[in-house]
Design brief:
The complex is a heterodimer of chains A (248) and B (338). With 248 residues, chain A is an alpha/beta fold. Chain A has 9 helices and 10 strands. Chain A has 2 domains: 163 residues, P-loop containing nucleotide triphosphate hydrolases (Rossmann fold); 75 residues, no CATH class. In chain A, helix 3 packs parallel to helix 5. In chain B, the strands form 2 sheets. A two-stranded antiparallel ribbon of chain B has the order 1-4. A two-stranded antiparallel sheet of chain B has the order 2-3. Classes of the chains: A alpha/beta (248), B mainly alpha (338). The structure holds adenosine-5'-diphosphate and magnesium ion.
Amino acid sequence: MTELILEAEGLTKRFGGFTALKDVSVGFERNCLTAIIGPNGAGKSTFFNVISGAFPPTSGRMRFEGRDITGLKQHEFARMGIAKSFQITNIFPHLSALENVRVAVQAMHSRFDLWRPRENLTGLIDQAHALLALVGLGGHGPRLARDMAHGEQRALEIAMALACEPRLLLLDEPTAGMSPEETKGMMELIQRLAGERTVVLVEHKMKLVMGICQRLIVLHHGELLAQGTPDDIRANDEVRRVYLGQGK
Amino acid sequence: MSETTTVPVTPHGPAHTPAHAKGRHRFYDAIARHRALVTIGFLFVFPWLMPYEALAINILIFGLYALGFNLLFGYTGLLSFGHAAFLGSGAYGAGVAIVSFGVPFLPAILIGVLLATVIAAIMGFLAIRTRGIYFAMVTLALSQCVYYAFYQAVDLTGGENGLRGVNIATLTLFGWELNFLDPMTKYYVIFAFVAVAVWLFSRLLASPFGAALEAIRENENRARACGYDVAATKLAAFVLSGAFCGLAGALRAVHLSIVPIETLHYLTSGQVVMMSLLGGMGTFFGPFVGAAMFLLFEDMLTLLTVHWQLYLGAIFIIFVLFFPRGIWGTLLQWVRRP
Ligand SMILES: Nc1ncnc2c1ncn2[C@@H]1O[C@H](COP(=O)(O)OP(=O)(O)O)[C@@H](O)[C@H]1O
Ligand SMILES: [Mg+2]
């Protein structure tokens, strides 16, 4: 059995009286590309928010690399090696693309340095350039983030997520709102990234992920409906009923 | 890099800037890189541009007060309505040290700054987890507590009469004998402190910490996801802001040789908000422009009419409506046009 990088045990998240996540227990294998699928409102983003520390679970526990991380603060997640890109593009719009990534890299190294000029910390700048190049934005550094195309902004956000050198990278619908060409580029990027770290991706277009991921997790009404290889999922009657049945 | 350390003025992307504008931008970029030096140079010649020295000193001190406030308001995106607490505690700290304990000039200034810093740490600790209007209200309420604490401590602070007798006649600084009663000498002694503060402030903005503040102002949620402890960073900014304002207060005490209780009044908190908006929030030089405009208008209007506050309010509203970036912010936007 391969090692689990993240284990969730009985994760439940309630918003007032509404249960968005119901007793979800699931493990993610290291260096495996996993996709979470499920119809809109299934609780996929909520699950990501909980395992990236954006808010604590109402009950349940989670372990990262064997360590109990339930109840840690959100900023500790990034420093520990869990990073996320958001379903709705979340960047620093008025900063340059380079500064967006540089400030993310900086968060790992010098947060309370009040003295040195930031442009003297060339190591951070080099790292930011390298990350921009990695996501296909080499040479776009000086542009203001808000002036970039939607697809470029999504890629920029992934570069920012990579800044903490995450061992677990969570991508919430990275292709949302993208044109077919942009989607193709993004899928290639994700496969490239998955070669070197654990990637978990939320996607509701099932066809997109079937071909590239090794494992699938299906959420429905906040509950874990099924998990397994793409073939297992295709063969799963319940999944077909609630999900595939709706027409692809 | 330099465009990211200044205000987010209009983007001047290299791709669509006409050639004749490029030289101009290079020139202003060069100035922006040396903005601390340029500001200090301007303040050095400033008293010669003013009708009388006391007004120049007032502007210098309130400029520093607004500069400190701007760290929180303009650069971190937090609107505090309680900054009079830091100006006031800086003033009382230095004043009481001189009047009641006979502490010499330099240590007294230091005591004022330290007192303001401690009070900022306490207020910040209590306020920093609230946001928006709640943050403004909590800082206002806490500053009122500070007001009453100083108001009640009559033996030390003189209560509602204010603290009198903060007299510094001569100063011996590094072997120099200076006549503090001479207005020009007084200006340049205070200028020396402000110059150091301006230089420290620019280092702070250019540092990684300054970048973290910008990130939090831009998108707090993203900053947190990147791994910044947003609450701790904001608290640090709050305390530093209080320290700069405390220095302004301490200098004001020795300048006026009294500390009026109004220094701690919430109107003094409101004034610094007005100065920042007039000058341009989130711009380096804007606080000095705002302080100068505010005090110059006040100076002229009080001569002309007893209803000066009404006219000052009207001028303020006109500026905020038509120049939402403030005077300096609007000017910056204009010189950075493509
Ligand atoms: N912060 C929140 N407060 C209240 N309800 C929420 C919140 N976030 C999500 N929900 C609700 O939880 C359910 C699951 O949402 P979400 O996790 O975003 O689904 P998905 O990403 O699978 O489309 C939805 O019904 C949504 O309205
Ligand atoms: Mg979602």
